[in-house]
Design goal:
By secondary structure, this protein is of the alpha+beta class. It has a single domain, classed as Pnp Oxidase, Chain A. The chain contains four helices and seven strands, in the order H-E-E-E-E-H-E-E-H-H-E. It has a seven-stranded antiparallel β-sheet with strand order 2-1-5-6-7-4-3, sandwiched between helices. The longest helix has 13 residues.
């Protein structure tokens, strides 16, 4: 699937660059993953992520079973939305928010070394405590499932709340 298979952004004057989109993915710790859930209903959940610049993919960790995994197994097409914290221009009340929407395909990561890399990088987005990380890799790692989102299309925009 190519970018041409996706809708162009309607409010193109608000569009931000791919570089800005990647900056948001790299700096923000979480977003909303949306899938096709049970009975065809949309299913969106907050999730922590790690963006890997080396392969231009997003990675996640989760439990080894549940609604999310069932949905991904049924249909691997997902979207993921991330927003920054926003900013106010001097003298204005309205918040300006950058958001990124990624469309792509999700799969389960089976390589143990890659899973360890994913879990380590997600944890480091929240803490620099290496002792905590070591404990988590011993205690929680056996119960973790990791997911890889291959980006097929990405757009971002700056929206003013006013």
């Amino acid at each position: 699937m190519s970018d041409m298979d996706f809708r162009p952004m309607r409010r193109f004057k608000q569009q931000i660059s791919e570089e800005k989109c990647i900056e948001i993915l790299e700096t923000q710790p979480r977003g909303i993953l949306s899938m096709i859930g049970d009975n065809g209903y949309p299913y969106g959940i907050p999730l922590d992520h790690w963006y890997s610049a080396s392969d231009n993919k997003l990675y996640f960790h989760c439990a080894k079973e549940g609604h999310k995994l069932d949905s991904i197994v049924k249909c691997d097409k997902v979207s993921y939305c991330v927003m920054d914290e926003g900013f106010r221009r001097e003298g204005e009340w309205a918040l300006n928010i950058n958001s990124v929407v990624v469309f792509g395909r999700m799969k389960i990561v089976t390589d143990e070394d890659k899973k360890r890399e994913i879990c380590s990088n997600i944890t480091r987005k929240f803490t620099s405590d290496e002792e905590y990380l070591k404990k988590e890799l011993v205690n929680a790692f056996p119960r973790v499932c990791c997911l890889e989102l291959t980006i097929e299309h990405m757009t971002g925009k700056l929206v003013n709340e006013s």
